[in-house]
Amino acid sequence: MQIAIDVADFTPSEADQLRRAMGAKRSRAKMERLRDRFYTGAATNGITCPLADTIYGQIEAFSGYGFPEAHSMSFALLVYASAYLKLYHPAAFCAGLLRAQPMGFYSPQSLVADARRHGVVIHRPDINKSLAHATLEPDPDSTGRVAVRLGLGSVRTLGDDPTQALVEERERGGPYRDMVDIGRRVTLTEPQLEALATSGAFTGFGPDRRQALWTAGAVARDRPRFLPGTTTAGHAPSLPGMSALEVAVADVWATGITPDRHPVEFLRHHLDQLGALPTAAVPDVPDGTRILVGGAVTHRQRPATAGGITFLNLEDETGMLNVVCSPGLWTRYRRLAREATALLIRGTLQNNHGVCSLNADKLEPLDLHTAHKSRDFR
Description:
CATH class of the largest domain: Mainly Alpha
Oligomer: single chain
CATH topology of the largest domain: DNA polymerase, domain 1
Strand content: 15-25%
Structural class: alpha/beta
Number of strands: 9
Number of helices: 14
Shape: extended
């Protein structure tokens, strides 16, 4: 910009136009529109060819790589900072990504699963411990001595205002004593109380999820204008506990996140019987081997430059694997490939120094038992 001002008498505004042209994607075309102005200004200062050509040529040459260089430097900084935080502060890194949702390529479920594989402990929402968003709390069993606590805002149906009301009332009036206390201090609808109960947010002071669900309807009808104790809230009968799979299903329904176990983990015995490999074992398999894998589909992508090839991302409790689907395979299994939440995939492994992808040749449905959703064609 300073060269344009000193050599060619550009005004500051014109110099800024030159800067913008140099940083644009189609910089050469935009630079060409300023060429005559530069030569005219340079001539008035006695700078003519070949010196003017040399100066302009150097400016134009920089515009050819200035745009990608600027982006590469920005991305390099982001990658370095992200990698540093992920390595040395994995819990804080995970909590930060959860607080920034919706964003990025990976769902909260995938982010939490990856953090868990790297030693981070994830705790469910808790009515007396959670804020509106994901936070950190001391945990001697977690990497870095802190764990992630999911926020109340992650519970479906709550929304910003009820979540904030719950947190502010707790800060003002002290911890909630029980579900009846919550119902009389904060106005929540029955679906909101049921969602909190399903997420396990009430288990900190007594009832398990089924008992809390039973109580939610009565609590929703118990308001401060009524005499205390005149409803049936808090008197749930003895109910059977939930299995680990039922807890995972409830977690996915309530928050979209299973904090302690991946849904595919419940199918591992079945997958082992079929001979399906966990994704963590795939890098040890030689290149060109035909293998079977199974897991949840997290993404479907078809870049415009890929010649009709569709890329799937398959996730299990051990990691992720990129799957390549040819146009012919996609046509043959079109409905299954587009709609299945989980798949058994057979194909030929491409293993280049531990960087793996699977060229699929057969797809089969896999029942995941949870309402999992993938992020498709974004």
